[in-house]
Amino acid sequence: MAESRAAVRYAKAVLSLATEKKVADKVNADMKQIATAIADNIELDAMLQSPVVRSSDKVAVLKAVFGNANEATSNLIDVLITNKRIALLGDVANKYNHLYDALRETQVAKVTTATPLTKDLEKKVLSKVKELTGKTTEIENIVDESILGGFILRVGDLQYDASITNKLNKLKREFTLN
């Protein structure tokens, strides 16, 4: 919990600085890239979490991987290294993205489908979500063939599961209860 609060503080500080310098969009793109890279790469995450790896080695790896990042993002990495909090980098990046979306009053709707969404269907989902929430929305399409068909829509804390797998599971529960 304390680490989460620290990540929020770092994210707020970077967002404030980036907004002041009018580079919040660029820093947001950097933070998305950092969050994705750490989430997708187990070795990178393990290296950042490891107390055995020297800080200078961590800096060298991060500069090599995120060398084209904005100055505010590079400064964040330097501050986290100096304060011995570099293990929070992925969490800070995620918190920054959430704070940035809240500042812009946008949200991300995650739509899980068995096949990729078409542009037409994506527009329909966007308009329906905007109608329901009143906020500007971005779509993140996740393809998961295990749901067989239909979709799962997650916006913030709300989830609507209209997948074939969910319907089959409901039928299975009904038959086992009777």
UniProtKB/TrEMBL annotation:
Keyword match Ion transport: yes
Instruction: Kindly give the InterPro entries that the UniProt entry links to this protein.
Output: ATP_synth_OSCP/delta_N_sf, ATPase_OSCP/dsu
Pfam families in the record, alphabetically? Answer: OSCP
Membrane topology of the entry: Peripheral membrane protein
This protein's UniProt keywords: ATP synthesis, Cell membrane, CF(1), Hydrogen ion transport, Ion transport, Membrane, Transport
The reply to whether Cell membrane figures as a keyword in the UniProt entry is: yes
| Location in or out of the cell | Cell membrane; Membrane
Gene3D superfamilies reported for this sequence: N-terminal domain of the delta subunit of the F1F0-ATP synthase (1.10.520.20)
What protein family does this chain belong to?
A: Belongs to the ATPase delta chain family.
Name the PANTHER family on file. Answer: ATP SYNTHASE DELTA CHAIN
Q: Which NCBIfam families match?
A: ATP_synt_delta (TIGR01145)
Protein purpose: F(1)F(0) ATP synthase produces ATP from ADP in the presence of a proton or sodium gradient. F-type ATPases consist of two structural domains, F(1) containing the extramembraneous catalytic core and F(0) containing the membrane proton channel, linked together by a central stalk and a peripheral stalk. During catalysis, ATP synthesis in the catalytic domain of F(1) is coupled via a rotary mechanism of the central stalk subunits to proton translocation. This protein is part of the stalk that links CF(0) to CF(1). It either transmits conformational changes from CF(0) to CF(1) or is implicated in proton conduction.
Q: What is the name attached to this protein's record?
A: ATP synthase subunit delta
Species of the source: Winogradskyella alexanderae
